[in-house]
Design goal:
homodimer; about 130 residues; mainly alpha; two-stranded antiparallel sheet; about 10% strand; DNA-binding
Chain lengths: ~130, ~130
DNA sequence: CCAATGTCAGAATAACTGATATGG
DNA sequence: CCCATATCAGTTCTTCTGACATTG
């Protein structure tokens, strides 16, 4: 929770919220995706994603076009502008993380990261689709 | 966030929420305290703590009496009933934690715990009173 | 007079739950 | 006919802010 608050405060400095960051990061990491897929990846409810994407789209950070192959879907793409924005946010988040983990040595941070990543991956496998 | 959701779901089974658990645990660990102090320890806003304490008091889990030495303060004490309740919640939380950390070996869990505890303690020292 | 405490009221988010229209 | 998708409307829950009266 403390991490969450610190991150939120950091991102607010750039006018962003964590879901904006999550979506941009997911697009950057996995490439273009439909909203439903993005929702699963970022664990944002489909219904709430709509608003987040509206905002990101208004700011020119993503592009939303209907999939020609499956007209139910929108394909969400990261724009060059969005990519730049993500870089700024990444920097902010990194700074917050440095502050958050100030008590740990570099290799301890790596350890922590690895452990949490494994936990998260495992949860993803076991709980996917359950919410 | 996933941990938070799992814990919330677990505690809900006993009709409790995380702040109830946090308050009971803080009282058990540090002993009786004023509301302001509890607020700082548990990072619940003092305004929100009021409602939590009302509920815990209605359930007979804590006692709230005005401090005779400083009449601004209330002294919050864990009752025997509250202590029993905390034991039940502890069990639930432990089960959730076991599920949450299923991917990790026993000593890895200890490691993770130690790392997080250090981070948290450090944050407490550096940020106390800032919110 | 200023600071800390407990309390209340309400705003601002955030999380969650349907329902609906449309296309596969 | 059933399932998935995007969207909308609306509820509930939580977090957070600001005031206020009381006491030190």
């Amino acid at each position: 929770m403390q991490a969450d608050r610190l991150v939120a405060a950091g991102l607010a400095a750039a006018g962003a919220r964590k879901w904006h960051y999550a979506v941009l990061a997911a697009l950057d990491e996995f490439g273009p995706a439909s909203q439903a897929l993005l929702s699963r990846r970022s664990r944002i409810y489909r219904s709430d994603l709509v608003a987040v994407l509206n905002e990101l789209s208004d700011q020119g950070h993503i592009e939303r076009i209907t999939d020609t192959r499956d007209q139910r879907r929108n394909v969400i793409t990261l724009t060059a502008r969005g990519s730049k924005h993500l870089q700024r946010l990444d920097l902010l988040v990194t700074q917050v993380q440095d502050d958050l983990l100030a008590a740990l040595l570099p290799d301890e941070r790596v350890q922590l990261n690895a452990l949490l990543a494994r936990v998260l991956e495992d949860l993803g496998e076991r709980y996917d689709g359950n919410w």
